[in-house]
Amino acid sequence: MMSTSTIDRVAAFRAHGFFVAPAFLDAATRADLRRACDVALSHARALSQETGHSTPRISLLTDGMVCLQDDPRALEVIAAFVGSPRVCELLSGLARPQEGDTPRLKDAHYYHEQTRHDWDGDWHRDSQFGQADPEVERALVATTTSVHFRVALEDDDRLEIVPGSHARWDTPDELRIRRGADRTTPDMPNAVRVALRAGDACVFHAWSIHRATYRREPPRRTLDALYAFGRATVRRWAPPGT
Ligand SMILES: O=C(O)CCC(=O)C(=O)O
Fold it and tell me: Of 108, 129, 183, 191, which residue is the least packed, with the fewest Cβ within 10 Å?
């Protein structure tokens, strides 16, 4: 039996493609997670002039393993959180019926403030990456679910989303912006800003049209994990020439 808050959350996700769970973390858990993620960010910044400086985010569980190898406790805190029943519960009911209800973790990232210059990100659906053909992308959007779960470890109002765009294909204006020459325009019709207070969580559909703007101030420290539903795509090996 779904609780009322679960029903509200699922309804908001279906209608808008995102929802906010206010005060998802208490102060102690937030401080613990922030400490763990900051270990990785400090290492990344020490190792690279780009990663952690002019990138929007660092990867915590794939490339980020290097940054956490001297601090297994930090890795444990992050991995335990993104795999926790509490986070998975927040994702329940979001997938399409044929995809099942088990989220598959793809990676976790740490979004951070810039150290060099401010810049504006491109409007996109995550589905467009790796899909050169918009018609192939359109089929992916129509049949699959992929979600970002994020929790702000400092106040974060950088993300903008076009509500409802997860459930339909682009309008002509959206397609022109998203796949055109002016992908960073501030003039995306109907976009809303998602303002999170430290400790708030947000879940949004990765196929929604969204972007963020990246600034040196204030500090940005948002942990974001990406999950897919349904079966992983398995490419069958075939001998050459078959
Ligand atoms: O919050 C952000 O910086 C934007 C995230 C984003 O665009 C993405 O992960 O696809």
Answer: 129
How far apart CA 132 and CA 112 sit, in angstroms, is: 29
Q: Establish whether residue 122 lines the binding site of ligand 1, counting it when its CB lies within 6 angstroms of any ligand atom.
A: no
Cβ of 149 closer than 6 Å to ligand 1, yes or no, is: no
Which range marks the domain in which residue 214 is found? Answer: 8-228
pLDDT per residue as tens digits for the range 19-46: 999 999 999 999 999 999 999 999 999 9
Around Cβ 120, how many Cβ atoms within 10 Å?
14
Tell me how far the alpha carbon of residue 101 lies from the centroid of ligand 1, in angstroms: 24
| Beta strand residue intervals within 87-167, DSSP E | 104-112, 119-120, 146-152, 156-161
Residue 3 lies in a domain: no
Is residue 212 lining ligand 1, measured as CB closer than 6 Å?
yes
pLDDT per position as a tens digit, 105-148: 999 999 999 999 999 999 999 999 988 898 999 999 999 999 99
pLDDT above 70 for 238:
no
- Tell the residue number behind the tokens 């915590």, with chain if given: 60
Number of domains in the chain: 1
Mean pLDDT for the chain? 93
The answer to the question of residue 233 being in a domain is no
Helix (H) / strand (E) element for 126: namely: none
Return the closest-CA partner of residue 22 out of 151, 160, 161, 148.
Answer: 151
